[in-house]
Amino acid sequence: MDANEPAGHQVKLVDLIEAMRKLCIAARPHEPGTGSVTDARGAALAVLTPDGTFLSANRTAAALLGYSSAELAGKRLVDLAPDDLCVALAGELSVSAHREFHSFPAVLCGRIGHPTRLMLHQQSVPSGQTGRSALLTLFEESLIPGPELADATRLPDASARDRLTYLTMGQQKERQRLAAELHDGLGQALTLVKLMAEDALMRIRRGQVDDAAQLLDATVLRIRETIGDVRQICGELRPVMLDQLGLPAALGSLCRRIERSAEHISVVFNCDVGDEDVPEHLKADIFRLAQEALNNTVKHAAATEVTLGFRRIAGGLLMTILDNGVGYENRPLSTEDACATGLGLIGMQHRVESHGGTFSIQSFGTSGTLVSAAWTA
């Protein structure tokens, strides 16, 4: 258990993934044909205790509220609500604590204090040996204009869900995420570089050459870090290797890179798919799925062998990632793991299912894990 994690709130990965499946079904019962997430990076997800304390949050949820994931851990949801709505929010959380699934509207204020109207969808997750539940929480920006939201609070859950579109997470969400990264990350980094360069220039004019030289050395390091940030943002838009090499070659290069960086793991790549066999709109998500699965194996599985398979099947494509490490089923997730690994695997699930594919994870006790994804192509 993580030292900072509340006792009794260890969350198993298998339970977290199952809770996400149930949440999707419960939140859109009348829209079975609607993809639940158009881009997995857009879904704002967090794991809360029954009283509404954040155990973990993914980057999208944290950005929505103006915090980092680490800053949200330990905060109480009711403390983010306006003073006159705290009691109502506490009441809704009390309902969630006694139900398997509960949706309700809420108004939350982020770091800057600006109120944001949201729909919260909460699914219970078994937690710890006591059987107490954590709450997997999806934060959805409401489509209902301001005055109507108050009326929505008086509607039954089913009626409220009928009037809202579940997970409006497409291009606009991704643009908002990128805008936040460019402004808060890259923008601040460039501002700091500018100030450091100006400070060095003033020192040179005062004759403090040695001090200026040290400051310029630090500025160069900061510029290198900023270049890395730019590359990361560009890579999230579309991996460069896909355009340079094609998907099969990019996957092979990924396997070799993983094997070089983790000396204790042997990575085998089996592929009978040509780049022309893969629809263009699937390539980036297939690559991201493999990348996420392999990184999870290196970080968490304690494996010595992993095999990435990518092959044609009747009517489509199948990717499998099989390792010989410890299975995830009985391994509790710390607060950090629940954010980085648990919600990451949920993101993998939605990358596949948003394109009509199927996704599964099988754990073989202490003898390994098999991740499978299939797409129609």
TrEMBL record:
<dbReference type="InterPro" id="IPR035965">
    <property type="entry name" value="PAS-like_dom_sf"/>
</dbReference>
<keyword id="KW-0902">Two-component regulatory system</keyword>
<dbReference type="Pfam" id="PF02518">
    <property type="entry name" value="HATPase_c"/>
</dbReference>
<keyword id="KW-0418">Kinase</keyword>
<dbReference type="InterPro" id="IPR003594">
    <property type="entry name" value="HATPase_dom"/>
</dbReference>
<keyword id="KW-0597">Phosphoprotein</keyword>
<feature type="domain" description="PAS">
    <location>
        <begin position="45"/>
        <end position="78"/>
    </location>
</feature>
<dbReference type="GO" id="GO:0046983">
    <property type="term" value="F:protein dimerization activity"/>
</dbReference>
<dbReference type="InterPro" id="IPR050482">
    <property type="entry name" value="Sensor_HK_TwoCompSys"/>
</dbReference>
<dbReference type="GO" id="GO:0005524">
    <property type="term" value="F:ATP binding"/>
</dbReference>
<dbReference type="GO" id="GO:0016020">
    <property type="term" value="C:membrane"/>
</dbReference>
<dbReference type="Pfam" id="PF07730">
    <property type="entry name" value="HisKA_3"/>
</dbReference>
<dbReference type="InterPro" id="IPR011712">
    <property type="entry name" value="Sig_transdc_His_kin_sub3_dim/P"/>
</dbReference>
<dbReference type="InterPro" id="IPR013656">
    <property type="entry name" value="PAS_4"/>
</dbReference>
<keyword id="KW-0547">Nucleotide-binding</keyword>
<dbReference type="GO" id="GO:0000155">
    <property type="term" value="F:phosphorelay sensor kinase activity"/>
</dbReference>
<dbReference type="Pfam" id="PF08448">
    <property type="entry name" value="PAS_4"/>
</dbReference>
<protein>
    <recommendedName>
        <fullName>histidine kinase</fullName>
        <ecNumber>2.7.13.3</ecNumber>
    </recommendedName>
</protein>
<keyword id="KW-0067">ATP-binding</keyword>
<keyword id="KW-0808">Transferase</keyword>
<dbReference type="InterPro" id="IPR036890">
    <property type="entry name" value="HATPase_C_sf"/>
</dbReference>
<dbReference type="InterPro" id="IPR000014">
    <property type="entry name" value="PAS"/>
</dbReference>
